[in-house]
Amino acid sequence: MRLTILSRSGAIYTTRRLAETARARGHRVRVVDPLEVELGLGGRPALFHRHRSIPRTDVVLPRIGLSVTQYGLSVVSQFELLGVPALNGAQGIAASRNKMRCLQTLAACGVQVPRTVMASNASKLRDLVKHVGGVPVLVKLLSTGEKGGVMVCETLESLEAALEAILGLGQNILVQQYQRGKRGQDLRALVVGGRVVAALRRRARVGRFARSLARGARFEPAVLEPAQERAALETARIVGLDVCAVDLLDAEEGPLVFEVNSSPGIREAEEACGVDVAAAVIEAAEALDARAPGRGAGAERPARRAP
Protein backbone atom coordinates (compact mmCIF):
# COMPACT_ATOMS: atom_id res chain seq x y z
CA MET A 1 0.00 0.00 0.00
CA ARG A 2 1.15 3.51 -0.84
CA LEU A 3 0.05 5.72 2.03
CA THR A 4 0.05 9.53 2.08
CA ILE A 5 -0.25 11.12 5.52
CA LEU A 6 -1.35 14.75 5.42
CA SER A 7 0.35 16.45 8.37
CA ARG A 8 2.16 19.69 9.03
CA SER A 9 5.22 17.78 10.29
CA GLY A 10 6.54 14.24 10.33
CA ALA A 11 8.03 14.92 13.76
CA ILE A 12 4.64 15.20 15.48
CA TYR A 13 4.23 12.18 17.76
CA THR A 14 1.06 10.82 16.15
CA THR A 15 2.31 11.37 12.59
CA ARG A 16 5.66 9.77 13.39
CA ARG A 17 4.05 6.73 15.02
CA LEU A 18 1.69 6.23 12.09
CA ALA A 19 4.50 6.49 9.54
CA GLU A 20 6.83 4.16 11.48
CA THR A 21 4.08 1.58 11.98
CA ALA A 22 3.04 1.63 8.33
CA ARG A 23 6.65 1.21 7.15
CA ALA A 24 7.17 -1.64 9.61
CA ARG A 25 4.19 -3.37 7.98
CA GLY A 26 5.82 -3.08 4.56
CA HIS A 27 3.99 -0.03 3.21
CA ARG A 28 5.42 2.96 1.37
CA VAL A 29 4.70 6.14 3.30
CA ARG A 30 4.88 9.78 2.33
CA VAL A 31 4.23 12.58 4.84
CA VAL A 32 2.97 15.69 3.05
CA ASP A 33 2.27 19.11 4.53
CA PRO A 34 -1.19 20.03 3.18
CA LEU A 35 -0.13 23.66 2.88
CA GLU A 36 2.56 22.61 0.40
CA VAL A 37 0.03 20.93 -1.88
CA GLU A 38 -1.27 22.75 -4.97
CA LEU A 39 -4.62 21.86 -6.51
CA GLY A 40 -5.50 21.92 -10.19
CA LEU A 41 -8.95 21.94 -11.81
CA GLY A 42 -10.07 22.42 -15.41
CA GLY A 43 -9.71 19.29 -17.46
CA ARG A 44 -8.58 16.46 -15.21
CA PRO A 45 -8.19 17.30 -11.50
CA ALA A 46 -4.54 17.38 -10.44
CA LEU A 47 -2.48 17.40 -7.25
CA PHE A 48 1.03 18.82 -6.92
CA HIS A 49 3.49 18.84 -4.03
CA ARG A 50 6.17 21.49 -4.22
CA HIS A 51 5.26 21.97 -7.90
CA ARG A 52 5.66 18.30 -8.78
CA SER A 53 2.89 15.82 -9.47
CA ILE A 54 2.07 13.68 -6.46
CA PRO A 55 2.88 10.04 -7.26
CA ARG A 56 0.38 7.23 -6.96
CA THR A 57 -1.42 7.06 -3.64
CA ASP A 58 -3.61 4.17 -2.53
CA VAL A 59 -4.93 5.72 0.70
CA VAL A 60 -4.71 9.20 2.19
CA LEU A 61 -4.72 9.63 5.96
CA PRO A 62 -5.58 13.23 6.88
CA ARG A 63 -4.16 14.81 10.02
CA ILE A 64 -5.65 18.26 9.45
CA GLY A 65 -4.93 20.79 12.21
CA LEU A 66 -7.47 23.42 13.24
CA SER A 67 -5.33 26.26 11.91
CA VAL A 68 -5.34 24.81 8.36
CA THR A 69 -8.87 23.41 8.28
CA GLN A 70 -10.15 25.24 5.21
CA TYR A 71 -7.18 24.54 2.95
CA GLY A 72 -6.68 21.08 4.37
CA LEU A 73 -10.27 20.13 3.57
CA SER A 74 -9.75 21.26 -0.02
CA VAL A 75 -6.71 19.00 -0.29
CA VAL A 76 -8.60 16.00 1.11
CA SER A 77 -11.50 16.70 -1.26
CA GLN A 78 -9.08 16.79 -4.21
CA PHE A 79 -7.71 13.36 -3.30
CA GLU A 80 -11.27 12.04 -3.06
CA LEU A 81 -12.11 13.64 -6.41
CA LEU A 82 -9.26 11.62 -7.92
CA GLY A 83 -10.72 8.43 -6.44
CA VAL A 84 -8.23 8.03 -3.59
CA PRO A 85 -9.90 6.59 -0.45
CA ALA A 86 -9.47 8.79 2.63
CA LEU A 87 -9.37 7.47 6.19
CA ASN A 88 -11.61 10.36 7.28
CA GLY A 89 -13.16 12.14 4.34
CA ALA A 90 -13.52 15.88 3.97
CA GLN A 91 -17.23 15.77 4.80
CA GLY A 92 -16.69 14.01 8.14
CA ILE A 93 -13.80 16.28 9.13
CA ALA A 94 -15.83 19.39 8.28
CA ALA A 95 -18.81 18.08 10.26
CA SER A 96 -16.66 17.55 13.35
CA ARG A 97 -15.09 21.02 13.11
CA ASN A 98 -18.42 22.87 13.26
CA LYS A 99 -18.92 22.19 16.96
CA MET A 100 -22.48 23.43 17.36
CA ARG A 101 -23.70 21.92 14.11
CA CYS A 102 -22.10 18.61 15.07
CA LEU A 103 -23.99 18.57 18.38
CA GLN A 104 -27.21 19.53 16.60
CA THR A 105 -26.79 16.62 14.20
CA LEU A 106 -26.08 14.17 17.01
CA ALA A 107 -29.08 15.36 19.01
CA ALA A 108 -31.32 15.05 15.94
CA CYS A 109 -30.17 11.43 15.58
CA GLY A 110 -30.95 10.56 19.19
CA VAL A 111 -27.46 10.81 20.70
CA GLN A 112 -27.59 12.48 24.12
CA VAL A 113 -25.57 15.69 24.39
CA PRO A 114 -25.04 18.01 27.39
CA ARG A 115 -26.99 21.22 27.82
CA THR A 116 -25.32 23.67 25.45
CA VAL A 117 -25.74 27.31 24.48
CA MET A 118 -23.99 29.35 21.81
CA ALA A 119 -23.60 33.11 21.57
CA SER A 120 -21.89 35.59 19.31
CA ASN A 121 -20.02 37.33 22.14
CA ALA A 122 -19.03 36.81 25.76
CA SER A 123 -20.79 39.79 27.34
CA LYS A 124 -23.65 37.57 28.54
CA LEU A 125 -21.45 34.73 29.68
CA ARG A 126 -22.90 34.71 33.20
CA ASP A 127 -26.41 34.32 31.81
CA LEU A 128 -25.31 31.59 29.44
CA VAL A 129 -23.90 29.61 32.35
CA LYS A 130 -27.29 29.80 34.10
CA HIS A 131 -28.95 28.29 31.02
CA VAL A 132 -26.83 25.13 31.30
CA GLY A 133 -27.34 24.71 35.04
CA GLY A 134 -24.46 26.71 36.52
CA VAL A 135 -20.83 25.81 37.11
CA PRO A 136 -18.94 23.67 36.34
CA VAL A 137 -19.08 24.51 32.63
CA LEU A 138 -16.93 24.16 29.56
CA VAL A 139 -16.33 27.45 27.73
CA LYS A 140 -15.13 27.15 24.13
CA LEU A 141 -13.98 29.84 21.75
CA LEU A 142 -15.21 28.81 18.33
CA SER A 143 -12.47 29.56 15.85
CA THR A 144 -10.79 27.78 12.94
CA GLY A 145 -7.48 29.49 13.70
CA GLU A 146 -4.93 29.63 16.47
CA LYS A 147 -7.16 31.71 18.79
CA GLY A 148 -9.59 28.90 19.47
CA GLY A 149 -9.50 27.47 22.95
CA VAL A 150 -11.33 25.76 25.77
CA MET A 151 -11.53 26.35 29.51
CA VAL A 152 -13.11 24.43 32.38
CA CYS A 153 -14.78 26.78 34.86
CA GLU A 154 -15.59 25.09 38.15
CA THR A 155 -16.19 28.24 40.20
CA LEU A 156 -17.58 31.73 39.75
CA GLU A 157 -14.02 33.03 40.11
CA SER A 158 -12.78 30.99 37.16
CA LEU A 159 -15.85 32.13 35.22
CA GLU A 160 -14.85 35.76 35.83
CA ALA A 161 -11.35 34.93 34.62
CA ALA A 162 -12.80 33.43 31.44
CA LEU A 163 -14.96 36.49 30.87
CA GLU A 164 -11.99 38.80 31.27
CA ALA A 165 -9.88 36.68 28.89
CA ILE A 166 -12.33 36.55 26.01
CA LEU A 167 -14.10 39.92 26.10
CA GLY A 168 -13.13 41.95 23.08
CA LEU A 169 -12.00 39.00 20.98
CA GLY A 170 -15.22 39.11 18.99
CA GLN A 171 -15.45 35.32 18.71
CA ASN A 172 -18.45 33.06 18.97
CA ILE A 173 -18.52 31.12 22.19
CA LEU A 174 -20.10 27.86 23.22
CA VAL A 175 -20.92 27.04 26.84
CA GLN A 176 -21.61 23.47 27.87
CA GLN A 177 -22.72 21.64 30.94
CA TYR A 178 -19.67 19.96 32.41
CA GLN A 179 -20.96 18.06 35.40
CA ARG A 180 -18.43 15.70 36.78
CA GLY A 181 -18.98 12.04 36.11
CA LYS A 182 -19.41 9.29 38.63
CA ARG A 183 -15.67 9.24 39.23
CA GLY A 184 -14.97 12.92 38.83
CA GLN A 185 -13.62 12.79 35.28
CA ASP A 186 -14.81 12.83 31.70
CA LEU A 187 -14.20 10.04 29.21
CA ARG A 188 -12.46 9.88 25.85
CA ALA A 189 -13.08 6.97 23.49
CA LEU A 190 -10.79 6.45 20.50
CA VAL A 191 -12.78 4.95 17.65
CA VAL A 192 -10.93 3.36 14.73
CA GLY A 193 -12.60 1.43 11.94
CA GLY A 194 -15.90 1.02 13.73
CA ARG A 195 -14.56 -0.14 17.08
CA VAL A 196 -13.32 1.45 20.28
CA VAL A 197 -9.60 0.69 20.50
CA ALA A 198 -8.83 2.65 23.68
CA ALA A 199 -10.70 4.51 26.40
CA LEU A 200 -9.40 7.05 28.89
CA ARG A 201 -10.63 8.89 31.92
CA ARG A 202 -9.41 12.45 31.80
CA ARG A 203 -9.13 15.01 34.56
CA ALA A 204 -8.90 18.28 32.68
CA ARG A 205 -6.90 21.26 33.88
CA VAL A 206 -9.17 23.87 35.44
CA GLY A 207 -9.22 27.63 35.08
CA ARG A 208 -6.96 28.34 32.11
CA PHE A 209 -7.57 28.50 28.37
CA ALA A 210 -5.80 25.87 26.29
CA ARG A 211 -5.91 24.68 22.71
CA SER A 212 -7.59 21.48 23.89
CA LEU A 213 -8.67 19.70 27.05
CA ALA A 214 -5.63 17.46 26.71
CA ARG A 215 -3.29 20.32 27.68
CA GLY A 216 -2.23 19.68 31.26
CA ALA A 217 -4.82 16.95 31.75
CA ARG A 218 -4.22 13.72 33.62
CA PHE A 219 -5.21 10.42 32.01
CA GLU A 220 -5.89 6.92 33.21
CA PRO A 221 -7.20 3.86 31.35
CA ALA A 222 -10.92 3.16 31.48
CA VAL A 223 -13.29 0.36 30.59
CA LEU A 224 -16.40 1.69 28.90
CA GLU A 225 -19.85 0.56 29.90
CA PRO A 226 -21.96 -0.80 27.02
CA ALA A 227 -24.01 2.43 26.78
CA GLN A 228 -20.86 4.53 26.61
CA GLU A 229 -19.35 2.36 23.89
CA ARG A 230 -22.58 2.47 21.88
CA ALA A 231 -22.68 6.26 22.16
CA ALA A 232 -19.08 6.56 20.93
CA LEU A 233 -19.59 4.22 17.98
CA GLU A 234 -22.90 5.80 16.99
CA THR A 235 -21.33 9.24 17.14
CA ALA A 236 -18.49 8.23 14.80
CA ARG A 237 -20.99 6.68 12.40
CA ILE A 238 -23.30 9.72 12.33
CA VAL A 239 -20.50 12.24 11.87
CA GLY A 240 -18.90 10.02 9.22
CA LEU A 241 -15.45 9.42 10.67
CA ASP A 242 -13.28 6.29 10.46
CA VAL A 243 -10.84 7.61 13.07
CA CYS A 244 -11.89 9.96 15.86
CA ALA A 245 -11.94 10.69 19.55
CA VAL A 246 -15.37 10.97 21.14
CA ASP A 247 -15.49 12.88 24.42
CA LEU A 248 -18.26 11.98 26.84
CA LEU A 249 -19.55 13.05 30.21
CA ASP A 250 -20.17 10.12 32.52
CA ALA A 251 -23.48 11.56 33.73
CA GLU A 252 -26.13 9.99 35.93
CA GLU A 253 -28.68 10.07 33.09
CA GLY A 254 -26.29 8.24 30.78
CA PRO A 255 -23.33 9.15 28.55
CA LEU A 256 -23.45 12.64 27.05
CA VAL A 257 -21.32 13.34 23.97
CA PHE A 258 -19.82 16.82 24.18
CA GLU A 259 -17.16 16.83 21.45
CA VAL A 260 -15.80 14.89 18.48
CA ASN A 261 -12.18 15.23 17.34
CA SER A 262 -11.35 14.07 13.81
CA SER A 263 -7.54 14.32 14.22
CA PRO A 264 -6.93 13.08 17.76
CA GLY A 265 -3.49 12.61 19.20
CA ILE A 266 -2.73 9.04 20.19
CA ARG A 267 0.11 9.55 22.65
CA GLU A 268 -2.04 9.68 25.79
CA ALA A 269 -3.95 6.53 24.84
CA GLU A 270 -0.81 4.59 23.93
CA GLU A 271 1.02 5.59 27.11
CA ALA A 272 -1.88 5.32 29.57
CA CYS A 273 -3.57 2.24 28.12
CA GLY A 274 -0.62 0.39 26.60
CA VAL A 275 -2.57 0.04 23.34
CA ASP A 276 -0.95 0.21 19.91
CA VAL A 277 -3.37 2.75 18.48
CA ALA A 278 -1.10 3.44 15.51
CA ALA A 279 -1.35 -0.19 14.44
CA ALA A 280 -5.14 -0.06 14.65
CA VAL A 281 -5.20 3.02 12.40
CA ILE A 282 -2.89 1.45 9.81
CA GLU A 283 -5.00 -1.73 9.87
CA ALA A 284 -8.04 0.43 9.11
CA ALA A 285 -6.14 2.01 6.21
CA GLU A 286 -5.27 -1.45 4.90
CA ALA A 287 -8.91 -2.50 5.10
CA LEU A 288 -9.95 0.68 3.27
CA ASP A 289 -7.43 -0.03 0.53
CA ALA A 290 -8.66 -3.62 0.18
CA ARG A 291 -12.28 -2.43 -0.20
CA ALA A 292 -11.47 0.19 -2.85
CA PRO A 293 -12.90 -0.52 -6.33
CA GLY A 294 -10.20 -2.30 -8.30
CA ARG A 295 -8.14 -2.14 -5.08
CA GLY A 296 -7.21 1.50 -5.41
CA ALA A 297 -7.88 1.76 -9.11
CA GLY A 298 -8.66 5.44 -8.84
CA ALA A 299 -5.39 6.03 -7.05
CA GLU A 300 -3.41 4.31 -9.78
CA ARG A 301 -4.02 7.30 -12.01
CA PRO A 302 -1.36 9.65 -10.63
CA ALA A 303 -2.06 13.34 -10.43
CA ARG A 304 -0.64 15.14 -13.47
CA ARG A 305 0.17 18.71 -14.22
CA ALA A 306 -2.77 20.69 -15.41
CA PRO A 307 -2.37 21.84 -19.00
- Write down the CATH class of the largest domain: Alpha Beta
Q: In percent, how much strand structure appears in the residues?
A: 25-35%
Written as H for each helix and E for each strand, in order along the chain, the element string is: EHEEEEEHHHEHEEHEEEEHEEHH
Number of domains: 2
Distance between the termini: 29 Å
- Which structural class do you get from the secondary structure elements? alpha+beta
What radius of gyration results from the CA coordinates?
20 Å
Question: Main β-sheet, in a few words?
Answer: 5 strands, antiparallel
- CATH homologous superfamily (4th level) name of the largest domain: ATP-grasp fold, B domain
On the 0-100 scale, what is the average pLDDT?
A: 90
Q: What sort of overall outline do the alpha carbons produce when their principal axes are compared?
A: globular
Strand element count? 15
CATH architecture of the largest domain: 2-Layer Sandwich
Q: Helical amount among residues, as a percent range?
A: 25-40%
Quaternary status: single chain
CATH domain fold name of the largest domain: D-amino Acid Aminotransferase, Chain A, domain 1
Count of individual helical segments: 9
Poorly predicted segments: 296-307
